[in-house]
Specification:
Strand order of the largest sheet of chain A: 2-1-5-3-4
CATH topology of the largest domain in chain A: Ubiquitin-like (UB roll)
Radius of gyration of chain B: 19 Å
Shape of chain A: elongated
Order of helices and strands of chain A: EEHEEEHHHHH
Number of domains of chain A: 2
Structural class of chain A: alpha+beta
CATH architecture of the largest domain in chain B: 2-Layer Sandwich
Distance between the termini of chain B: 44 Å
Order of helices and strands of chain B: EHEHEEEHHHHHHEEHEEEEEEEHHH
CATH superfamily of the largest domain in chain A: Beta-grasp domain
Largest sheet of chain A: 5 strands, mixed
Structural class of chain B: alpha+beta
Strand order of the largest sheet of chain B: 4-5-10-6-7
Radius of gyration of chain A: 17 Å
Oligomer: heterodimer
Number of helices of chain B: 12
Number of helices of chain A: 6
Shape of chain B: globular
Number of strands of chain B: 14
Helix content of chain A: 25-40%
CATH class of the largest domain in chain A: Alpha Beta
CATH class of the largest domain in chain B: Alpha Beta
Chain lengths: 166, 277
């Protein structure tokens, strides 16, 4: 039976645009695979039960919890982390706005916030503050009190929509 | 914490998944979107499970028009249900419910079949399925069978699924002309489990009212339904409060949940019937 249900699983996936092949323990979380095996320590492992959002990464075009997905399940997937999204410049304006608005202090939540915010801003051209709040409700920040984060996301959404960024 | 897993296999197709589950025996556990199961593994609520990963079975994903009903593949993700034009047109309660389930990143992975097979008494989809009169298609190595929602949910996290069976599709009757469907819940924070919730439909003057987070499983409030059919709103709220026995826990007392049930019924009825909540 152990042949049918191995403890080590072979996976082939794409991470930040590069092909990766690896053998992972069956219970390895995607977030631990990214951080510990690939050295991509941008996204963080926080609560490890899907509540805090610090481990949020993009899988096949959508934000997911890196702690609620096994690395074994990422076989064939296209994964993007904050490192890759920074390198391509896709979230450069969000990152600049987070700095300009003091939307981070310790930075632990920021990589997850950026992935969640980018998914919202890319899909909704002019989100209201309420929609931004709702979307980011799955990402905890223990430093800022959120207002600055919402300011930053709102400013980027407005700028991308062609309006004046405040 | 880290998950403790007894083994893992990725199913190639449904037949393979059923064979794997059969070999795994009692330790076998079907892994779909994983948004409840992986959390439970991480919290070591369960350990040593042999995971049969069905998440790559494309045949069980997507929404089809089946004439009088919709056939929703068990692996259809919450976000896909919210966006699906057939669901929005013919089972709008399901699309509305998605906005109440956890957070975007969880809705991106979680599946409707997983939510129903998991049978969390606080979950939205099981109660929706009950309110809408849905049926579930299940498969095992001995063949398929269909289980009505009303016979499926037995107790907290306990369903009519037998060992070796996999839920493959949710069959939802299409809404009738002028049918109204609403879902209402109260949670302390956006994305939290509901302290109390209910699903209300009205089809040709007849109401169906399914409750969640108000008992050990999703339940129909039949006396309240009869009062609503008779046009007696005050009687319906009183009947609802009398016929439920909600739990007390660290989130809310039974008395508060009972109060919320009445408030939610008025809100839902106001949306359906018009008038103030």
């Amino acid at each position: 039976m152990t042949d049918m249900f191995p403890q080590q699983i072979d996976v082939a996936l794409s991470v930040n645009g590069e092909a990766v092949e690896a053998r992972v323990p069956a219970g390895r979380h995607l977030i631990d695979f990214l951080r510990l095996d690939l050295g991509l320590t941008g996204a963080h492992a926080g609560c490890e039960h899907g509540v805090c959002g610090a481990c949020t990464v993009r899988v096949d075009g959508r934000s997911v919890r890196g702690c609620l997905m096994l690395a074994a399940q990422a076989h064939g997937a296209e994964v993007w982390t904050v490192e890759g999204l920074s390198e391509t410049g896709e979230i450069a304006d969000l990152q600049e706005a987070f700095v300009a608005r003091n939307a981070l202090q310790c930075g632990f939540c920021t990589p997850g916030m950026l992935v969640a915010a980018q998914e919202l801003v890319a899909s909704a051209p002019a989100p209201t503050r309420e929609q931004i709040r709702e979307r980011l409700s799955g990402n905890y920040c223990r430093c800022t009190g959120y207002e600055a984060i919402i300011d930053a996301v709102e400013a980027v959404a407005q700028a991308r929509a062609g309006g004046a960024a405040r | 914490m880290k998950a403790s897993v007894g083994g893992y296999a990725r199913a190639r197709d449904l037949r393979h998944a059923l064979e794997l589950l059969s070999v795994a025996g009692e330790a076998g556990r079907v892994l779909a979107g994983g948004q409840s199961l992986v959390a439970a593994l991480n919290m070591r609520l369960t350990a040593g499970d042999i995971l049969v990963d069905i998440s790559a079975l494309g045949a069980c994903r997507g929404v089809d028009d089946a004439g009088d009903s919709l056939r929703i593949g068990a692996l259809t993700r919450h976000v896909e249900i919210a966006e699906d034009p057939l669901v929005r047109a013919h089972a709008p309660m399901l699309a509305e419910a998605v906005g109440l389930i956890a957070h975007a990143a969880i809705r991106n992975r979680g599946t409707i079949g997983g939510a129903i097979a998991h049978a969390d008494p606080a979950a939205e989809f099981p109660a929706c399925a009950l309110a809408l009169g849905a049926e579930f298609e299940v498969e095992s190595l001995s063949g398929p069978r269909t289980i009505p929602a009303a016979a499926f949910f037995r107790d907290t996290f306990e369903t009519a699924l037998a060992p070796g069976e996999i839920l493959t599709a949710v069959i939802v009757p299409k809404a009738a002309e002028a049918e109204a469907q609403v879902i209402e819940e109260v949670a302390r924070r956006c994305g939290d489990y509901a302290l109390a919730g209910l699903c209300l439909t009205r089809r040709a003057g007849r109401h169906r009212l399914a409750l969640f987070s108000l008992g050990p499983r999703p339940m129909l409030a039949e006396r309240a339904m009869a009062a609503l059919d008779a046009g007696d709103m005050a009687g319906a709220a009183a009947a609802l409060k009398a016929e439920i026995d909600p739990p007390s826990d660290t989130q809310a007392s039974a008395a508060y949940r009972r109060h919320l049930a009445g408030v939610l019924l008025r809100r839902a009825a106001a949306r359906i019937e018009g008038g103030a909540a």
